[in-house]
Amino acid sequence: MHRHEGPSRGKFAAGTAAAVVLATAAAAILIGEYNERPPWGTDIAYEGGFVQASRIRGYDVDGSRTKALLDGECASMERQGMGGDRAVHDPAAWVAGCLDAAAGRPSRNQGIVR
After folding, report:
1. Residues near 44 by Cβ (< 8 Å), separated by ≥ 6?
2. Of 58, 55, 105, which Cα lies nearest the Cα of 83?
3. Has this prediction a pTM greater than 0.85?
4. 78 pLDDT higher than 80
5. pLDDT above 70: residue 73
6. Based on the number of CB atoms within 10 Å of its own CB, is 70 exposed (0-12), middle (13-18) or buried (19 or more)?
7. How far is the C-alpha of 38 from the C-alpha of 88, rounded, in Å?
8. Helix axes 91-103, 41-59, angle to 10 degrees
9. Which residues fall within 8 angstroms of residue 95, CB to CB, at 6 or more apart?
10. DSSP 3-state assignment of 96?
11. CB 63, CB 108: distance < 8 Å
12. What's the rounded Cα separation, in Å, for the pair 80 and 106?
């Protein structure tokens, strides 16, 4: 018969309990820091604004809506709640994404390294 080589059951249970306590503490710190907002909420808001303005710009035949976006309609849309759930994470980032798309600039989130 071969004897098991490893920690005793007591040491294993103590180690597992310590790992659970540390994981719970880390989760509590993250929840306290971000609450219901995900850590990447700024990126989500920016891309939401960028996509919204890209769609408007794509269907704008005469350029009047694009000019309106650049003249303040992005901020107005966000204030009226037209940004949806994505704008709630970071309203300023949503407006920045909207303005970037309206101006024809590439998304700041493109590429592997930002």
Report:
1. 38, 86, 89
2. 55
3. no
4. yes
5. yes
6. middle
7. 11
8. 30
9. 49, 74, 75, 78
10. helix
11. no
12. 25
